[in-house]
## 1
Amino acid sequence: MPYGQLPVLEVDGKQLAQSKAICRYLAKELKLMGSNPWEEAKGDMIVDYVEDMRSPIIRIFHEKDEERRKLQTQLFKEQQLPTFLKNLERDLTDNKDGEGYFIGDKMTWTDILFVTTISVIKLFAEKYNMEFSLEKFPKLSALVERVESSEAIAAWIAKRPETAM
Ligand SMILES: N[C@@H](CCC(=O)N[C@@H](CS)C(=O)NCC(=O)O)C(=O)O
């Protein structure tokens, strides 16, 4: 393992670490990048923002003090998460009125990373009894459906192993 950490992708006996480097490599191979440098930069901007949305989860998960964990979970649920989702709903709406994807006119790895992060938030919500729904964010909710029902992704979801947090 290059840095002693996961994830690691192995291709033809070579190893690649760092999740976003792996995502970008796979996106280029699978034609899931934006169509021009501006679209790719916007896609990267949204990816970094989605990563920021996910970061409190990691901190809370590693918090040993139960009282502090409860407070941080409440802050995440009531303030941080709604702000992130509101901004992401606006970003999505800015492109084709939110009827398609975050950038351009086809699905990119930015959409997939967002949908994957939502599934991590759902697992987190189950573990810590936190109410979570995308009800107030209809465009994001429809994006999750759109991505999860695309043929190859739906086939993977149907056969992937159960994941616990
Ligand atoms: N920036 C890295 C972070 C990788 C990372 O923190 N991996 C964790 C698992 S999700 C790990 O392997 N931790 C064990 C360790 O660091 O010893 C990435 O995005 O891939």
Note: The beta strands are 8-11, 14-17.
## 2
Amino acid sequence: MTLSKKTQRIRKFLSYYAPYKGLLIADLFSSIFIAALALILPVCVRYITKDVLENGTENILATILQMGALMLAIIVVQTGFAMFFDYKGHDMGAKIERDMRMELFEHLQKLSFGFYDSQKTGQLMSRLTNDLLNLAELYHHGPENLVIYGTQFIGSLVILLHINLKLTLVICLFLPFMAIYSFVFYHRLQKAYARSRSRIADVNMQAEENLSGIRVVKSFANEELEIKKFSAENSYFYQSRANIYKNEALHFTVIEKFFTQLITVAIIVVGGIWIAGAALDVPDLLVFILYAAYLTSPVPKLAFMVQQYQDGLSGYRRFREIMDTIPEIRDAENALEIQITRGHVEFRNVTFRYNEEQDYVLRNVSLDVQAGETVAIVGSSGIGKSTLCSLIPRFYDVIEGEILIDGINVRDAALCPLRQQIGVVRQETFLFGGTVMENILYGRPGATADEAVEAAKKANAHEFVMELPNGYDTDIGQRGVKLSGGQQQRISIARVFLKNPPVLIFDEATSALDYNSEKAVMDSLRTLAKGRTLFIIAHRLSTVRSADRIVVLTKEGIAEQGTHEQLYALDSVYAKLYNTQDL
Ligand SMILES: Nc1ncnc2c1ncn2[C@@H]1O[C@H](COP(=O)(O)OP(=O)(O)OP(=O)(O)O)[C@@H](O)[C@H]1O
Ligand SMILES: [Mg+2]
């Protein structure tokens, strides 16, 4: 990475503080004050024990009370700062996290189908949640810890050196050992945490697979096998927990209990000897013990800060990775606000494949669909019917050739209006959690409830919806699981009936329906399709018999096209397909 690129990255990283500059400065100031005020307290102790009690002043009681009042004031101010810093500091981190999550989510909405084909949803989710949480911790605690522990360490070192140089050096002798020990064991502890996280993920996956496939498990009577598999994962997880506790004991306990007390003992022993030799006095020893904690506690924190920095930065790197992904499919410069008035769709020598490793799905396909025509695309499974149709709303871009709608190349059209004017019922139905009404209104968010009901009637959904416990207000469960496959399909058809676009694509939209329901939906579809261009993909050829034109797609491209009667009379590919289905 060149220097300028690196500075750019750092600048970008810091830019998330920009809206909260005031808050950041206030937070850093309160950190300094908290650390500095904490350093004053032992000075007061020294003043009372040494200057007042040992050396004696005129009015001992009054001076002690004054000092008490001063210390009380310090504590109150310090608490005030600490409260501000705890609340507002975390708040700032959470705000930055919120902003970044929003930015990421908005960007995810822009990325194309191709991006999602190659990503795992679980990993994207963890970028939206865990990564940003770690990052917020860094944004908030990173500078703050540096200031607090820095002030604490340097401040106490200066004061200790001022009180007694040699005794300070005694403490400093221990610090490198403490630092090395904490780095080594903190690193081991982090590894143990990471292993445990991956083990619990395995347990979750095993349990989720088992529970969602419990019907298969039971029908094969494989419960014993499942228990064995789960028991293995469960004990791996236990081992990882045990490893964490061992490493926590080695890290925290040794540092907090052993090292800290060891230093205190060293101060008392060495200091005691020096007091005996009159090289030190008791009040200084006392103050030394108080300050020693300030000097030593930042040392193990260093390992923690390094880890936090690494975690946060790797989260940030993954965040940028997505943010820097440019959507493959986006509006061209000067994109046209397409207005589909007729619905004339033309494929000109279209060639397409999903990626470079794969073979071409479509080669040099040309198809001219007249405005208002109903075209059925048929052909064997995996031949490219869905692919062909997904090129019209630009879910993917053609590799060669072009697709024109009303004479405008879809690549020149602005995406949003283009997609708003093409209605797609996809092969795989997807409904959102929520009510039936909410799901239908998804087709045209501003529509009225009456319009939604009208659309449901056309999709032959009204009757079954009215039989649901709360009618249109019935909650259909996550992804619509509380509805049957055919019911889900009818809701998704109603969604497009409500959208009412000039170009329609029905990809196996009625495959889950029985003969009568399908016939009813197809009848309304024919009414809707009047004056609109309609693409229908269906395996059940009886569904597409009445189409204006049937296009037969094969490996070689479009093999035949014409009406049912014409193609049947050809007695070739279509006739064979039709006859095998009739059997
Ligand atoms: N998102 C994708 N990424 C990579 N390859 C894909 C993707 N979607 C489909 N394919 C491949 O493209 C080819 C055509 O698939 P397509 O879904 O268009 O077939 P289809 O004719 O609609 O089949 P079916 O009748 O089974 O729905 C298949 O070989 C498939 O494996
Ligand atoms: Mg398909």
Note: The two ends are 66 Å apart (CA to CA).
